[in-house]
Amino acid sequence: MGGFSPPVASPATVNTGVRKVTEIETATSLIRDVDSDIQFETPEASPLTAVLKTLRKQDPADQRKFEWFFVPEFPRDLSITAAATAAATQIVVAAGEYTRLHRGMQLMNNRTGEVFIVGGASEPSSTTVDISGRAGAAAMEAGDALRIIGTAHEENHDKPVIRSQSEVAYFNYCQIHEDTWGLTGRAQNSASYMGNEKAYERKKLMVRHNQSLEELLINGVRYQSSTGGVVNSSELTYTGGLNFWIGSNVWNLGDTTPTEEQFMNYLGYVSQFGPSGYEAKGMASGKLVLAAPAWMTLLEKWFKDKVEYEQISNKLGVKVGFVQSSIGEFMVKLHPMFGRPGYRDRLYVLDLALLGYKAHKGRDTMVAEGVQTPGGDRFEALIRTDFGLMAGGDERAHGRAYGLAGA
User: Fold this and answer.
1) What does the alpha-carbon distance between residue 321 and residue 308 come to, in Å, rounded to a whole number?
2) Which residue in 306, 244, 295 sits closest to 266, CA to CA?
3) Does domain 40-72+170-407 have CATH number 3.90.1690?
4) Domain-by-domain residue ranges, the chain?
5) 292 neighbors 298 (Cβ within 8 angstroms)
6) CA dihedral in degrees (286, 403, 405, 321; nearest 10)?
7) Integer-rounded Cα radius of gyration of the chain
C-alpha cells in the first residue's frame, strides 16, 4: 500500500577553498560598480544653433509666419543683342533692360572700353535705345556686355525720368518641434545606477532635441499646408533652413577635390557680399566656415600655420579657428555632426550678421511635465520648440559646397 514519499532536496554545489569573487558574481549578489555619469555619443553636435541663439540679440516672432525686406543693388549690367557700327545712334538691349535706363545715363562697353550716354528726344520705351556722345567709338557685337557707370548731363538739361529698384519681400515659417518621454509609476520608484530616472530620461531627450534643431536649421524646407496636420487636419508648417535659402553659391564638386586656387576663388566670390563681406568691411570679413572633417584636412593643409584657435564666447565655450587671407578674415569650425553619413562632404560659408534664430514669442525651448492622461499609471513630459530661421539680406553672402571626393 503506497504511502507519502517526502521529496529529497538537490545537494548544494560545493566550492573548494576560499570564496572567490567569481562565485559571488555567479550568485548575482555582487554589487555592480556602475558610473552614473552617462556618456552620450554626440552630446554637443549643434554649434550653429548655439551661435545663432547666443551671439545675436533675441528677436522673437509675433506670428508663425515672419517676413523681412531686402533692397538689392540697382541693376547696372546690360547686354547688346544686335551688332552696331561705330557710327550707330541706336543699340538693341535685352528684353526689359531698357526700363533701368534714362536719358543722360552713361554706359561703358566692357569689351571695347567705349563710353557713351543714353540720348534721344524721349526716354527709352523699348529695347531699341538711342545713344549719343560716343567717346572712343567702336563697333559693337551681339553679346557685348554694357555697364552703367553713372550719368552725364548737358549744362541746360531737363531732369530725367526717375528709376529706382524695388525691394524684395521674403518670409519663413516657425516650426513646432517636439519630443516626449515618460516612465511608468513603478519605473519612477525603481532604484537605478543612473540615479534619478526621470532626470536621466530628460537629459537624453534634451540632447536629441537640440541635435534635431541643428539638422532642421540646416536641412529644413519652407512649407505650409492649411490641412496638413496628421491628427486634426490643422495647419502644418516647416521652416526653411540653410539649404533652402542658399541658392546662388552652391558648388557641387561631383566627387572631385578642388585645388587651393579653386577654393580661394570660390571663397573670394562668397566673401564679396553681405555686411561681413569685404565690399562692406574692407578686409575685415567675418564669415564663418562650417566644415566636415575631410574639408578641415584640406583647409589645414592649405592654410598650414595660419589658423589660430580662440574661444569666441565664454558663455558658449565654443572654439573656432581664425584665418587671415588676402580676401579677409574667416572663422573656421569643424562641425561635429558632419562626420556622419550624408554630411561628410559638406562645407558652409555663412555671414552670421544675416542669420538669426527666430522663436515664436513665448514658445522657445520649454519643458512641460505631467502631460499624461489623468488617472494613467505613468508620468509623461515633453520638450517643445516653436522656431524658425531668419535669413535676411543677400543670400549670395552665404555659400555651400558638397560632393568632395573621398568624403
Assistant:
1) 5
2) 295
3) yes
4) 40-72+170-407, 77-164
5) no
6) 20
7) 33
For residue 276, the one-letter residue type is S
Angle between helices 197-219 and 47-54 (to 10 degrees): 90
* Residue 205: CA count within 13 A, CB half-sphere: 22
**pLDDT confidence band for 1 (50 / 70 / 90):** low
What residues have CB less than 8 Å from 129, skipping those under 6 apart? 90, 91, 92, 93, 98, 101, 118, 120
Mean pLDDT score, 20-41? 58
Q: What is the pLDDT of residue 41?
A: 46
All cell numbers assigned to 295? 574639408
Residues 312-322: tens digit of each pLDDT? 554 455 567 77
pLDDT for 249 equals 95
Task: Tell me which amino acid residue 397 is.
Answer: A
The three cell numbers of residue 65 are 509666419
Q: Which residue, 349, 347, 359, is CA-closest to 329? A: 349
Q: In angstroms, rounded to a whole number, what is the distance separating the alpha carbons of residues 136 and 114?
A: 5
In contact, 214 and 48? CB cutoff 8 Å: yes
Number of C-beta neighbours around residue 271 at 10 A: 27
98-149: pLDDT as tens digits: 999 999 999 999 999 999 999 998 999 999 999 999 999 999 999 999 999 9
Q: How many angstroms separate the CA atoms of 19 and 261, rounded? A: 72
> Does residue 230 have a pLDDT over 80?
yes
